[in-house]
């Protein structure tokens, strides 16, 4: 992998790491007060994080693509897979995790989803201008 590819992947890695960190921090901070809520908030965060990681993997798997068609195909496959994985994970959690704090589950999902917008605003990285 060359330096240019690493530079393109760096913001995505920052977002994914931030999403994982937020999930764990929220879960640990709630653990002393509500164990079910803590588990639920972490699961909500993971329901958001795992499909995002899949999408990033699909998108960056297209190395050296010369046609915009290949890049667009990878994007749409990644987005479709992300949506499917999200639905499956929600279904698994709702069917298998008892008891479940639904409010905490969705709060974790939304909080982690917001990292997609917050991290790029806060972390701009090194400037490339003169």
From TrEMBL:
Parts of the chain that traverse the membrane: 12-33, 39-60, 80-97, 103-123
Transmembrane helix as a keyword of this entry, yes or no, is: yes
User: Keyword annotations for this protein?
Assistant: Cell membrane, Membrane, Transmembrane, Transmembrane helix
Subcellular locations according to the entry:
Cell membrane
Name assigned to this protein: F0F1 ATP synthase subunit I
- Topology of the protein relative to the lipid bilayer: Multi-pass membrane protein
Q: Which Pfam families match?
A: ATP-synt_I (PF03899)
Answer yes or no on keyword Transmembrane. Answer: yes
Q: Where is it mostly found?
A: membrane
């Amino acid at each position: 992998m060359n330096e240019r590819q690493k530079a393109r992947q760096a913001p995505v890695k920052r977002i994914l790491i931030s999403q994982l960190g937020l999930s764990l921090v929220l879960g640990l901070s709630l653990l002393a007060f509500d164990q079910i809520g803590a588990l639920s908030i972490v699961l909500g965060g993971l329901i958001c994080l795992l499909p995002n990681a899949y999408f990033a993997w699909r998108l960056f798997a297209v190395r050296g693509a010369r046609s915009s068609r290949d890049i667009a195909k990878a994007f749409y496959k990644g987005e479709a897979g992300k949506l499917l994985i999200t639905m499956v994970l929600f279904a698994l959690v709702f069917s298998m995790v008892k008891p479940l704090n639904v409010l905490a589950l969705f709060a974790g999902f939304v909080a982690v989803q917001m990292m997609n917008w917050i991290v790029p605003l806060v972390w701009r990285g090194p400037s490339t201008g003169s």
